[in-house]
Structure formats: structure tokens, C-alpha cells
Amino acid sequence: MNDSLDPSDWRALHEIGHEILDTVMEYIRTVESRPVWQDLPGYVQSALSESPPEAGMSVGEIWNSIKRILLPYSLGNLNPRFFGWVHGAGTPVGVLAEMIAAAVNANVGGREHAPIYFERQVLDWCRTIFGFPSSSGGILTSGTSMANVIGLALARGRGTDQRTREGGLYSSSRQRVYASTEAHVSIRKALELLGMGSQALVEIPTDETYRMRSDLLRERIAVDRESGFEPVCIVGSAGTVNTGAVDDLRRLGEICQEENLWFHVDGAFGAAVRLSEKYRNLVDGIEEADSLAFDFHKWFHVPYDVGCLMTRDMEELHKTFGTEATYLLRQERGAGSGIPWFADHGPELSRGFRALKVWFTWKAHGTRGFAEAIEANIRQAKRLARLVDADADLELMAPTTMNIVCFRYCPSEVARSEWDAFNTNLVVRVQESGHTVPSTAHVDGGVAVRAAIINHRTKESDVEILIDVIKSVGQTMIQERSTQHRSRSHE
Ligand SMILES: *Cc1c(COP(=O)(O)O)cnc(C)c1O
After folding, report:
1. pTM across the whole model
2. Is ligand 1 within 6 A of the CB of residue 141?
3. What is the pLDDT of residues 51-87, one digit of tens each?
4. From the CA of 268, how far away is ligand 1's center (Å)?
5. How far apart are CA 458 and CA 89, in angstroms?
6. What separation, in Å, do the N-terminal and C-terminal C-alpha atoms of the chain show?
7. Does ligand 1 have an atom closer than 6 angstroms to the CB of 404?
8. How many Cβ atoms from other residues are within 10 Å of residue 65's Cβ?
């Protein structure tokens, strides 16, 4: 019997540990040789429908089952031909960082230890890249969804003298938050979670480039004020998931100034273009945000999960999340010092060491490395858009601002009324082919095939393959239809 959970045979654990490390690195290196996605065989589900394990088993046996039920059946977002959704691709370096972070097993809620300074360092870098003032604060989160919750909590609480924190929702039920109809669903969720309810969300229509109509926004704010509502916040999207559109952040910032509203920006993936000298102007005005939510696990390729919330005034974080309990406990010196505590800047007390993987990945690749990968993806998106444009059977369905291309397959054999259903099926068939994974988006013209290009491994040839696969699967579907049609007419 062991007297702890540490191994009795450290040597054996070292050996299997090395084997695991070698295998996972090889797994990443050879990702392109495997199907992008494949259907899960029944044995995966059955292996994961067991009762809680009573007795422990060897790491070797566990590892064998991982190789069988996990490694081949991931979604495929490491693969350069995965374009399905806005998913990061991870890096081998990030794997090492995760391993070290797990070894240190830091609780980054507070107190005085090096991990705290890693997170502060990362936030300081964020301050620099986004041009936030030295008074600004921030916190790493599980993702942009949580960062949106925090940003909107700041918006809800601002200027209310702790009214909402103390009195709950009663006092805030007339508050209104404005976002475009293209804003991410996590905004609505955040408002529901914050008790403001989705009724607090006012969706403003977009123009033909899918950016919020600021004229309609102003009108609506005026009407709402007259009707006794309390506008508190405008949410700007810096990169929408449907089309990659960026709201006119400058303009929205000005309106917030004029109307005395909180300016929150959801820049989940799009904020990252700020790193690129070439494309940083796409998100001009982002530096004016009162709060900015973005992800490290998307276009920065840090392993899941890690997002970030930055706010212009660190005091706002304190006012919203600080608790007396931690103030009372604070020490000037010793292991219990380290003020301010992250636990006073967000909803969670215990917090993992997400900062290390960000720090490590950023150190390893540099801002320039991130920027080059981002620029390559934008170039590939433009190339894809040109290929679509040049093809008589394909049609672009939204402007390509950034890294998202929306188009459809609409050859003469398919009637206009069938385009939506046809493209919906087409995307599923392409995913099942294992060659590449796009997804669908609903845009003004109907159902689009959407390619979100957000992978540092993607090459121009991969977007060419996407077009080839779409066309060949599309052709197959047309042939199948005419065969079915013929056999039906023979009945
Ligand atoms: C991904 C995304 C989110 C949600 O972020 P998570 O990290 O998945 O929680 C919010 N907004 C936009 C625009 C996104 O792309």
C-alpha cells in the first residue's frame, strides 16, 4: 500500500510519461495524415458509459484506452483543413506549458507566489497590445463567454453605488444593453445569467456588411430613454462568428461617450488582429473599450481553455467582485500577501494557472509569430473568396473582412428554392468525407457554407482542397438525385 497518491514506482511513471509525451507530439506532427473528422464507433460511447472505477488501474492500461477511444476521435481542429467553427489549433509548445502548469498545480486566486506574476505579466502584455491605460485591469477566464459575463457585470454595476450587488435585480430590471443582431449568443446568455434577462438585450439591425447600424442604434437609445428604460451598455463585435464582420468600434465608442454608456467589445477571435501591423486597423477603436473580452484559445492558439477580460479601470473589477472576506484576510507580508488578488477581480476563488500556457506560448512564438499566422489566415480567406468568385457554380454570400468566408454551391442543376437544403446537406456530406470540415451559417441570402480559417497549419492549398471537395461532393449529390429521379419515374 502507498501512503499517498504518488506512485510507488517513480521510474515506471517516468517511462510511461516519456512515451505519452513522444506519442502526443507525434500525434500533432502527423495530424494531416488522419481524417479531419470521423464518426464515433460504438466502442467509444460504451467505454465511456461505465460505473465509477472502484479500484485504481495502471497508467499504462489507461493510456492504452486513451489511444483507442480518444486520440482518433477528436473534432479535428488541429487539422489544417478544419474550417468548421472558430476553434483554435493549439501548439506543441502549449502542451509542454500545460504539463508544467499541472505539475506546479497553482491556485491563482491570490496570495504571494510566482504564478500570480505570470498572469499579471500576461495582462500587462495585453495592456500594451490593445493600447489600454496603466490604470486598466484584467483577468484570465475560461473563455470569452465568461469574459462577456464579467464585462457585462461591470456595465450593470457601474454608477449604481453597489445597488445591484446589494439589492439584486429589482433595481436593474429597466436596464438595456445594445448589440447587433449578429452579436454572439454568449451576450444573451450573460445577461440571462446576470439576472437582467434576455429582455435587457436590444438587437440592432446590421447594414449590408453585417455591421451594426449606428443610426438605428442612436434612435433606439433615444426612444428607450423616453420610455423610461435605462440604457447602460453597447456591445461592439470585433469579428462576428457568422461572417467575421467588425462593428464600427470608433463610432460605437463615441456614442458611448456621448450617451454615458459602458462600451464592451466582444473580440473573441477578432481582437487578435490587433497584433498584425498589416490588419490592425480592422479593429480600430478597440482601444476605446471600457471592457474587452477575447480568447487566447482561438487565434492565439493557446490550448483550451483560456480567455481574457480587460477593463480600462481596474477599480471597476474591485467594485464588482471584491469581497470583504479577502480584504480581512490580507497580509502585508508573507505567503498570504500578494494584493490585489485575482479572486477580487472575478467570480471565482480558486483559479487555475492558465497564465502559464499563455506566457509560454507567447514567449515561444512572439507577437510576430502570432501575427504572421493571423496574416496567413486572412490571406487564405481572401484567396478562398477569389476562388469562389471565379467559379460559376459558387457564390459569395457575405463580404470577407477577416478570416471567415460565406458562400454557397448553386449550380444550374439545383433550383434556387433548393439551395438552402442542398447546401445544408452538402456541408454534412463534406464533413463525413473526412477530407475537410466547413460548417453552415445563416446569412441574409439564406444558408451559407462557412469556412472560418483560424489555423496556423492551414496552407493556401488547403482552401483549394476545400473548393475541390465541395464541388466533387456537390456533383455526386446531383448525380445521386438524377439517379433517384430516374428510378422513381420507372416505378
Ligand atoms: C467564440 C466566441 C465567443 C464565445 O467564446 P468562448 O471562448 O467559446 O466562450 C463569443 N463571441 C465570439 C465572437 C466568439 O467567436
Report:
1. 0.89
2. no
3. 989 988 999 999 999 999 999 999 999 999 999 999 9
4. 5
5. 10
6. 74
7. no
8. 12
